[in-house]
Specification:
Oligomer: single chain
Radius of gyration: 19 Å
Strand order of the largest sheet: 1-2-3-7-6
Number of domains: 1
Structural class: alpha/beta
Amino acid sequence: MSSVGIAKIEKIRKRIRLCDYLVVAQLYLKDDFLLKRELSADDIKPRLLGHWGTCHGINVAYSNLKTRFADNPNFSFILGPGHGFPALQANLWLDGELAKIDPKATLDEAGLEYVCRNFSWPDGFPSHASPITPGVITEGGELGYALANAYGFSLGHPEKITAVLIGDGELETATGIDSLNLYNLLDGSNNGTVLPILHLNGYKISAPSIYARKSERELNELIRGFGFTPYWVGEDVEDFQLKLNDNIKAPFYIMKTEKGEGGPNRHHQAHQIPLKEPRNNPDELEQLKEWLRSYRVEELIEDVFATNNNGEKDDR
């Protein structure tokens, strides 16, 4: 394995942090999206709808993959847990992809406000991935089909590289687990490469997931039995990048992160909305302020806006 530059590692870490912030802003805020003043109850959406629990893991996976395959026009990403849509939308906005289908989603402060305010809002963006999202062909609330879709997408296209993020609860579905057999059926020079990533965050909604309760050895042997080589990755960006660069046949990435990582402490593993009443509960409003401030968005966003104003963007 080759080394990974410090600047690249820091860039990925900052991207994850920014996208995590954008998720929280989408879930909660209808004003003061960059915390330019003291957040008040009036800045909070009156109805909170969305999923926080899986979003940090989505940002970890997407940020690492986007960096690794930035120069490959044949790279695609398929998201299994589409209920984590605010994370996907944060990344699509940051890369300028959302603006291609929605001119209001510009890579500036106005565009950021537009995306955050209109998430789970009447006539705005839905809480789940939907066909209006760039590249999405199915509704994001139906789990189990992601890996099968990835293999189907690669049929007859050897130039394609398709990464697919699979929720650990999702892999418990009959379609999800049976799709692991597709590697043996579709491996060959006439088809593209599929990179499965199991998001092992421990829970499906609030119940423990089966695969998170298996030992590392048990899970490794299960994955090997389907013909894959298991690779464990997580929050360590350098390790993630090294393993993505390690050229080995049939990798299967097991990405272990905590469900709801980065959220308020007593709601750490929340599936949907961690703080449910910040408009009406002063204690929850203070927790939300602390949560949002913890990302230090002011250290991140000006570089994004400045890059956009220069008319250039480098995802590497």
